[in-house]
Request: fold
Amino acid sequence: MIVATWNVNSIRARLERVLQWLDRTEPDIVCLQETKVVDADFPADPFRERGYELAVFGQKAYNGVAILSRLPLQDVRRGLDGEQEARFLQARCGDRLVVCSVYVPNGGTVGSEAWDYKLRWFDRLRAYLERAASPETPLLLAGDFNVAPEPRDVAFPEAWADSVLFHEAARAAFRKLIDWGLVDLIRLHHEGPGPFTWWDYRNLAFPRGDGLRIDHLLATPPVAACCTEAGVHREERKGKKPSDHAPVWARLNL
Amino acid sequence: MIVATWNVNSIRARLERVLQWLDRTEPDIVCLQETKVVDADFPADPFRERGYELAVFGQKAYNGVAILSRLPLQDVRRGLDGEQEARFLQARCGDRLVVCSVYVPNGGTVGSEAWDYKLRWFDRLRAYLERAASPETPLLLAGDFNVAPEPRDVAFPEAWADSVLFHEAARAAFRKLIDWGLVDLIRLHHEGPGPFTWWDYRNLAFPRGDGLRIDHLLATPPVAACCTEAGVHREERKGKKPSDHAPVWARLNL
DNA sequence: GCTACACCCG
DNA sequence: CGGGTGTAGC
Reply:
């Protein structure tokens, strides 16, 4: 089976591209972020027509997460410890695999209130895992973590050193999450540098090759053990009306 | 030769549709209205590539008129008696034919200040013709006049009787303009009702057939005498991203 | 740059 | 409804 995550930067603005990618990729499970739509307006029908069950958790203008699954979706949990922002959505796909679609706060600028919120959000996510999950059971955390964990995850690390996406404090928060018991599926199959998953819309970042790897598929060891392949669909950052993020995918021999 | 007028409701939003229509229609002269763009941002290159000379007169958010011509453009005049609003543009196309792209004020609501301005604008246009033109020389006034002159120019005349587009005072102002010495080229070839040129974006006006004929090709007798055919490209109101206006065209055996 | 949003306008 | 404007967020 194929699992994937994609920050689509508005599911309504991106619908045609997402559907075409879906038809080409045929993933079994997809986590979406920044859907930017309230649940009543989520364009569910084209996904249902393609055989997916949906769990959606949206809000008015920002954020918004969703899970598409060809396996039966159950035990849906919306929000991290009952927060109102639509950044966390969990569901069980099929018998055992628990999947979380995650959109970590960007952090604004280093030192801001938003920055504090981002670092705390990592702590709260780790606390949630400690209390509600176990590294021994099949769990997939997929989403936009807004952190490039290591220098090889940044095309020009020096230029990004003080940014919210690569600041040492954000990387430390990400590492603490990993240390709970998660495996970075991309790094099982790619040494790097890259593959990158995000290029700023501004400053010609994509043509200049100024990418970061901030979208991740993180899984517990029983899931990671059966990951045979993983990658990034970089071509989705090209052409007309791309998201600023590319999809990240992994093949699981479950 | 073919002459045409089209209120495009933003040349930037409509560019692809206008170019495709141009390639299919191959008009020699086109008057555009509601280009909604300052001259520096007018997308001139695709028109030049197709063999047109351009005269443009635009402003920031509203209005904006342009003339495209395969014949040499000369003697360009911008604005009606030096007004700032981009509603009038005149040029000579080729040796003798003078062409004006005209965007008459809508008029807001009957009785408003905008309504007064609309009626006066017609007076000023007539005064301009009296002082600067002659019914004996080749002149084409093409544009959105925001007036349906007669009941046969409105699909549901009773419903529109008190509107700014069909109010008796607006029709009288239009008639006075015609009486200077202009011929309505569409009415040379169509008895009506219709053909209509505008359907409100709101209230499902197009599917309900609720159209008005408010865009006109008005010409002096020497031009009208060689008009062999005229019509409205109603299909341009269909499909994706249509303008609310359809192009009006005429064939001149000049 | 490319999303949203609110507002103005026909 | 579908253009324009501006502002905010990333």
